[in-house]
Design brief:
The protein has 292 residues and is an alpha/beta fold. Helices cover 48% and strands 12% of the residues. The strands form two sheets. Strands 1-2-3 form a three-stranded parallel sheet, covered by helices on one side. A three-stranded antiparallel sheet has the order 4-5-6, covered by helices on one side.
């Protein structure tokens, strides 16, 4: 690499959260700029990489995406594993495609999510009514090593390496909420605030995630089956203790949590918590009962 390219890679690596050089990792590679930059940066860091590409068949030309990835993997000496699956168009397409994709990959696969993706995720979760856990967005770490890297910088890496990334038309499809947040909401926020809001939103996610972790730690000391302990605990911690108890794997909504608190306080003897189950109090203990 020449001087400018070497300087760019060094700067970005200083902000990445890769594991130690020599570690074996898997990288999800779509062929877009973010995932190709992930591949280049992981290689520059000295990781032992297996690249994984999944063709969902969502675009007529998607089968050609691998033609962009293959020569790069060969140039870098990286093993490339390719999966082809069929995801039908229809409701919840993004979520179904994501679930199908991750089902084919190791649980610790690295992805090329950037700081811009982090900002979008916080806003999407806010629009869904998420509390602090959701507003903490994606947790930084080895599996998402580029969360302090901007999307513009991943394109700069591809340009510096002489690579033209895949232009995925689904990334501009207004049917998908994330695309509208990216194309409409974030530019409007930048215009109103007269600043680039992505770093601000990413920092906000960091703060809320740390707060959420602390509250979870405090709430874990409360026995949610002890009605007296639950009723006497500070309300935010009591709610969180119930949320941790009933998460299966998704936490219950606020209305369900409030019903459980009513049982703990002695206002009612039992309450419905969904999935044909109820919370019942007996001798100041709460238990989950299956309804007949």
């Amino acid at each position: 690499m020449d001087g400018p390219t070497s300087s760019l890679i060094a700067d970005l690596l200083s902000r990445c959260t890769f594991p130690a050089a020599g570690t074996h990792v898997s990288c999800a590679v779509s062929g877009g700029a973010d995932s190709l930059a992930l591949l280049f940066l992981a290689h520059a860091h000295g990781l032992d990489i297996q690249a994984i590409h999944v063709d969902h068949g969502l675009r007529a030309e998607s089968s050609t995406d691998v033609n962009v990835i293959t020569p790069i993997a060969q140039q870098l000496g990286i093993q490339l594993l390719v999966h082809t699956i069929a995801v039908e168009d229809g409701p919840n397409l993004e979520a179904r495609a994501r679930d199908a994709r991750y089902a084919l990959m190791p649980h610790d696969v690295m992805t090329g999510h950037t700081q811009d993706d982090q900002a979008e995720t916080l806003l999407i979760n806010l629009l869904r009514g998420a509390a602090s856990q959701g507003l903490g967005a994606m947790r930084p770490g080895f599996t998402r090593p580029l969360l302090s890297v901007r999307r513009s910088e991943t394109h700069a890496v591809c340009e510096a390496m002489g690579v033209t990334p895949v232009n995925d038309s689904t990334n501009t499809d207004p049917r998908f909420q994330r695309n509208r947040v990216r194309a409409e909401l974030l530019p409007l926020m930048a215009n109103l605030s007269r600043r680039d809001t992505a770093p601000l939103l990413a920092r906000t996610a960091d703060v809320l995630r740390a707060d959420n972790d602390l509250l979870d730690s405090l709430a874990s000391n409360i026995d949610p089956t002890d009605a007296l302990a639950l009723a006497s605990a500070p309300l935010p911690l009591a709610r969180r203790a119930i949320r941790l108890w009933l998460a299966n794997p998704y936490p219950p909504d606020l209305a369900t949590i409030e019903r459980v608190l009513s049982v703990a306080r002695g206002d009612v003897l039992a309450c419905d918590i969904g999935e044909n189950r109820e919370i019942r109090r007996s001798k100041q203990r709460l238990s989950i009962q299956n309804l007949r």
